[in-house]
Amino acid sequence: MMATKPIASVAAGPAGRAVLPALLAKPYPAVMGILNVTPDSFSDGGQFIAPEQALAQARKLVADGADIIDIGAESTRPYGSQPVTADDELARLKPVLAGVVALGVPVSIDSMKSEVVAWALDQGAAIANDVWGLQRDAGMAAAVAARGVPVIIMHNRDRADPAIDIMQDIAAFFTRSLEIAAKAGICSDRILLDPGIGFGKTPPQSMTALARLAELSAFGLPVLVGASRKRFISTIVASEPQQRIGGSIAAHLIAVQNGARIIRAHDVAETVQALRVASAIKGQQ
User: Fold this and answer.
1) Based on the number of CB atoms within 10 Å of its own CB, is 114 exposed (0-12), middle (13-18) or buried (19 or more)?
2) Is 264 noted as a catalytic residue in this protein?
3) Which of 147, 157, 230, 244 is catalytic?
């Protein structure tokens, strides 16, 4: 795997300059709490679609120790999700986003549509989270670059192919995404990479991505991992999404061991506890 060329720097506001360094400076991995304002997300679809329920869950995530709240208004589950328009996403976000931003932790907008991302960033969201790594919406890179905020570039595929070396595919995808970012003027110190556990991968490939996560260090960029409640856990121990906390924590501890700096999770309190205890024990070595 070859490291990419440095990405040219652009001017950015204070939020763009400060958010990511502050998260990465923590003595233990930062935790991103998931807030789905959707009817069909794989684990908690419909639970937080009402604004009052969404805001209550956001407050709980913060109380449980979330360093970031990742809010999404369209399910990106690989199977069974229904595509929605930008207007649909905005209608779900508008009653909620300001209240979430007001809680005082950085907010990430999880959307593959540049129109939605641009609106959310202009309303106070501090991070863009694109599950198609700047490659699906031609306007995404420009929207992020213009606002100088961090962006999460996630690996994805339209369908899983069990015959490929998934790490080679991830590396090629990230190389292309970083070329797009460079052309748009997104500076490298505002980019995180996400291997996309469960997206366009077979369960064994998701496990391979976790086991070989350290290979992504060749890019010289921080890595975020979200294995929370993912389907591959059920292929090891049969379980429904809400029954996969143990498997999620195990996967996330392996991810941190292999270089992950930020963990995206549904079960924030349990994840924070596990990561901090593991960090404390490691500190005694």
Assistant:
1) buried
2) yes
3) 230
- pLDDT above 70: residue 43: no
Q: Amino acid identity, residue 50?
A: A
Inside any domain, residue 24: no
* Pairwise CA distance, residues 74 & 79, whole Å: 13
Q: Where are the alpha helices (DSSP H) in the chain?
A: 14-24, 51-63, 86-93, 97-101, 114-122, 140-147, 166-184, 203-211, 231-236, 245-257, 268-282
- Helix, strand, coil shares, percent, the chain, to 5: 45, 10, 40
- Please pick, among 190, 201, 261, 264, the residue that the annotation labels catalytic: 264
> Is 5 one of the catalytic residues?
no
Classify residue 125 as left (phi > 0), alpha (psi -120 to 50) or beta.
beta
136 belongs to a structural domain: yes
**Predicted confidence band at 4 (pLDDT cuts at 50, 70, 90)?**
very low
Report the domain count for the chain.
1
Phi, psi (5° rounding) for residue 192?
Answer: -120, 150
Whether residue 157 lies inside any domain: the answer is yes
What distances in angstroms separate CA 169 from CA 155, 174, 229, 239, 269, one per listed residue? Answer: 9, 9, 24, 29, 33
CA nearest neighbour of 245 among 230, 225, 262, 260: 230
- State pTM to two decimals: 0.91
- Residue 81: what pLDDT? 59
Inside any domain, residue 221: yes
Q: What is the DSSP string of 141-160?
A: HHHHHHHT--EEEE---SS-
- Residue range(s) defining the domain that contains residue 70: 30-282
Provide the b/e sequence for 146-159 (b: ≥16 CB within 10 Å). Answer: ebbbbbbbbbbbee
Q: Is the separation of the CB atoms in 252 and 265 below 8 Å? A: yes
